[in-house]
Fold this sequence. Notes:
It is a single chain. By secondary structure, the chain is of the alpha+beta class. The chain has four helices and five strands. The protein has a five-stranded mixed sheet with strand order 2-1-3-4-5. The longest helix is centred in the N-terminal third of the chain and has 12 residues. The relative contact order is 0.18. The chain binds tetrahydrodeoxyuridine (THU). The site of tetrahydrodeoxyuridine has 15 residues, from α2.
Amino acid sequence: MNGLSGLGYSIERLTEEASKARARAYVPYSGFAVGAVAVDADGSLHHGCNVENAAYGPTNCAERTALFRAIADGRKAGEFKAVAVIGDTDRPITPCGVCRQVMAELCGPDMPVILSNVRGETRVTTVSELLPGAFTAKDMGN
Ligand code: THU
């Protein structure tokens, strides 16, 4: 069971929404556009794209843009219902380690993560599958 039944959106629709976000990517350095969408507890969608920087390091991935945007808009950590991501990869896109850590912080371990590529391939996984053994607040005694 991957928690997709109570989502209110199909995998196809969320992938389409992530594609819309991808069209807004700011990628003058890599040319590699990524889009993401986070579904919040109310079922509202929060879109994100990657935003690059000439200094490279400040680049923000699409997944983090979507989640940070949702948090800035008042959504609560642990209440997201899903995240969908899309990029032009051979296999369904696979989130970077930093984004996995951010998902481990802001999303529940069983939250579904829908990974797609532009050729229509999709893989559904979860936060804890993407980052087993994540360092979290619990490890700090919180
Ligand atoms: N990127 C994302 O936005 N999400 C991913 O899942 C993988 C990588 C971005 C970061 C950078 O702007 C570009 O893709 C190439 O790494």
